[in-house]
Amino acid sequence: MDIDNLIKYGLSIAQKNGASYAEGRYQADLGEGLMLKNGVPELASHFNNVGLSFRVLVDGALGFAATNKISKKDVSKVIDMATKSAKASSILFKDKVGLSEEEPKEDKVVIKPRIKFENVEQESMIELLKDADTAAMESASKYDAKLVGRFLFVRSWITEKRIMTTDGMNVYSFIPRVVFSFRLTALGPNKLASQRFAEKGESGGWEAIEKLDIVRLMKNEGEVLGKLVTQARSPPKDKLDVILGSEVVGIICHESSGHPGEMDRVLGREAAQAGESYLTKDSVGKVVGSNVVNVIDDPTIPHSFGFYLYDDEGVRARKRYLIKEGKINEFLQNRETAFVTGTKSNGAARASQYNREPIVRMANTYMEPGDHKFDELLENIKFGIYIKNFTEWNIDDRRFNQRYVGLESYIIENGELKEMVRNPIIEMTTVGLFSSIDAVGSDLDFWAATCGKGDPMQGVPVWTGGPSVRLRNVNLGG
Amino acid sequence: MSTREITSKVLKLAKKEGATDAVARVEEIEWHMLRFSNNSLTVTKSLLEKGLHIFVCINGKKASCSIMNLNEDAIKEATVKTVKLAKSSRESDLYAPLPKGPFKYDKKFKKVGDESIEVEKLPNIVKTSIESALNSGANRVAGSLIAQRVKVFQETSGNARSEFESTMYNLSIRAFTDSDSTGQFATTSTFISKIDAEKIGRMAGEIAKMSKDPKSAESGIYDVVFGPMTFADLIEEVVDASSAFSVDAKTSFLVDKLNEKVSSKGVTIEDDPLNQDAPGSSPFDQEGLPTFRKKIIDDGILSTYLHNSATSKKMNQKNTANAGLIHPFPFNIVVSEGSKSLDELISSIDNGLYVTNNWYLRYTNSLTGDFSTILRDGLFKIRNGSIEGPIKGLRLSDNMLNFLKNIEELGKERYWIKWWEVEVPVLTGAALVRQMKFTKPTI
């Protein structure tokens, strides 16, 4: 029996078992990767993660079951597990689960890589990573710094999904992704150390890695780390103006707008794990930032790392303004949360693998660019600091109290970038941070990341991004 | 194909294709979860899976794969591809031939935990834990209960053939009196009978009740009592940093600290793979070596890194049987038993904090150990040896070596902790640590 018929078979069994709704998903994640550690290939690896899952709704009780054993017999078994488990626990479902009604969709989304990852010789990948590694080391050594710990990774995987539901969704998707990531640890002659981790990735093929020019990228990273451990001074303690670079703005939008804007968190579904939100379901219209702040989550950006056109409940994806002119505008919703809030899903349901349930997730979260050129952000600043990127960060489980430790950072004096500073700390509340922004740049850029949420953990590919922004009258933390 | 046939065929084919070393490991998993929030179940989840992991070397050239498609052709294709990847790689400086067996494994650990999962008992555990938290003063409760049974069969080209079955239960409860006033506690065991749902619910509920109406806290340097949840998380970080892979890669704050005093006298931290109660137990590591209990920190001295054959050879140190074929890892972490109760630890502090939980620990620099982590759930001010009241909004922003050095006293009541934030089971009590730095937002 082919996959489509197997899913249909599962859905029919679920309905016979009393499910008012059932959803079947086939998901195959096939990928490979290469890790270079301190200049030497440590491991080449590949994987296939293939299986089927079903969600059933029985008298307001939600059951999920999955297996990698793809046969009629095993599909019957997991459907039986999902329905029996939901029924046996139904008395504990005090709040009956429901799903919003959505327009049935049948569609097929296929993204073709221009250069397939598997067609690239491993030897040439190794050579490229070694060249990048050497470039980083050489540029750091110009400052008498050593890159004592160096990890460089390239990974690629294809996610193939077929989603069918008893209320008419039938969507197929095929999306390849590639990502380059690195972690560098630098040590100066004075024993000062600095560490940098970042990822760049897209949906597509090897062409995205070629476009990155990772040798140039790593040369620059090595140089910055070399300067940091030999030339950077301590950050100032005075109140000052701050420019945050695209990478910092991206993580802020993700952590402080995207996560608190997930309606399942707002409703408490993640309360025991990743936590809740400082927002309530009635927060639309609440002022959380200055009127130049607009934050968007958009899964439909072509080539983006978080790209999809249909979510894992079969709902058509769309661009969502989470914050508009400083006010909460919209939450991220799946069918389960939209049912509770009496709205429609906006296509935010994602499952990282076949054996994970679809929950509310971000895709590509970024601040909408403004019209200030970088020089214009700088020109009015008498004394300030420019934090281009970051190292450590964290935020509380209601997404209100956050900290970003700057990495590549410079003093600003009379509108000009001056000497480098070590690890300036932004430690602010969400509203305090967004309200301090008085100007937004036009220099939009995106960074790849793997967002973790759920229990069991689900890591999904996302972009975080934004332009540079200017904050006025800020005290550094720490 | 049977599991034995799978591993045997993989090894035979890998050798034929040119592998000098190979490991085939099949894991068969039955897994159930009940998730709940707002006093109500949100979803039940079940998994039935069987997966294959292959690792091959051609001398120092390494490759691995993990596949869930276990038909004969897919297994053959995966094995050939893995060897091909190794062939076109380069030699790693971290390589040693796999240990030569056969080995004898402790028969008591062929099966750990319950014979099977009694799924019908799970809803009642959830019900009891929710009711217990509510009866202790909470007005809403969230959490999860996991039940898992795993069968592992592993074979290596070093003639080490091993198998193992175990069950794991994990209950985590978070109780709320309001959004700012919460308490969390968790437990884990290999036996369902040892999951005390009433106690875990009560402990979470009591912390939530004590946390009601917290005041804004002041940043500063404080003496602190870390409850078992937080201490487990911090110690897991320390043990993770003791992996020889991280040390070799210069990403660990324990680089160049072997045989040095890193903590106070009286602080002993062990890795214990052979513990009938602990769900991380395994009688063999991923290279097929028989596992054993070892002290990582012995009375304050860093006494070993965690090794596999490759790291052990490169560093010329004793193999601790903690493979991880690439990254050695701990099985179960045991913190030594102290002599003081929680109340006695708190009474040792004039002006300080009692921290019950944390999450989101990140490093500014893992080589130096500079880190911060957000405090969550009950956080209390201690004044003149007693809890003065709940506070909120602090972050622990300090250094791991400083944390280890400043541990003064360990608690005597120990708990097995494992939850969303703590992956490896940790047996620990509370601990008194002097002079830790706490920060808060500037605006």
Describe the model:
In chain A, helix 1 runs parallel beside helix 2 (72-88) and helix 3 packs parallel to helix 5 (214-231). Chain A starts with a helix and ends with a strand. Chain A has 478 residues and is α+β, with helices and mostly antiparallel strands. Chain A has helices spanning 3-16, 72-88, 122-141, 207-212, 214-231, 246-258, 263-266, 335-341, 374-379, 430-435, and strands at 21-37, 40-58, 61-67, 106-110, 146-165, 170-187, 193-203, 240-244, 295-297, 320-324, 327-328, 349-350, 359-360, 364-367, 383-387, 390-395, 401-406, 409-413, 416-421, 425-429, 437-440, 445-453, 458-466, 469-474. Chain B folds into two domains: 3-207, PmbA/TldD fold (2-Layer Sandwich); 214-443, no CATH class. In chain B, the strands form three sheets. In chain B, strands 1, 2, 3, 4, 5, 6 and 7 form a seven-stranded mixed sheet that branches. A six-stranded mixed sheet of chain B has the order 12-11-10-13-20-19, with helices on one face. In chain B, strands 9-14-15-17-21 form a five-stranded mixed barrel. The longest helix of chain B has 16 residues, at 72-87. The mean pLDDT of chain B is 97.
Please sum up the structure shown.
The complex is a heterodimer of chains A (about 475) and B (about 450). Chain A is of the alpha+beta class and about 475 residues long. In chain A, about 25% of the residues lie in helices and about 40% in strands.
Descriptors:
A: 478 residues, alpha+beta, 7-stranded mixed β-sheet, 6-stranded mixed β-sheet, globular, B: 443 residues
DSSP summary, beta strand count of chain B: 21
Q: How would you spell out the order of helices and strands of chain B?
A: HEEEHEHEEEHEEHHEEEHEHEEEEHEEEE
Kindly name the structural category of chain A.
alpha+beta
Number of strands of chain A: 24
What proportion of the residues of chain A is helical, as a percent range?
10-25%
The gyration radius over C-alpha positions of chain A equals 24 Å
Mean pLDDT figure of chain B: 97
Tell the overall outline of chain A: globular
Proportion of strand residues of chain A:
35-45%
Which percent bin holds the helix content of chain B? 10-25%
> What is the overall number of helices of chain B?
9
* Poorly predicted segments of chain A: none
Q: Largest interface, per-chain counts? A: A-B, 92 and 88 residues
Instruction: Return the structural class of chain B.
Output: alpha+beta
SS summary, helix count of chain A: 10
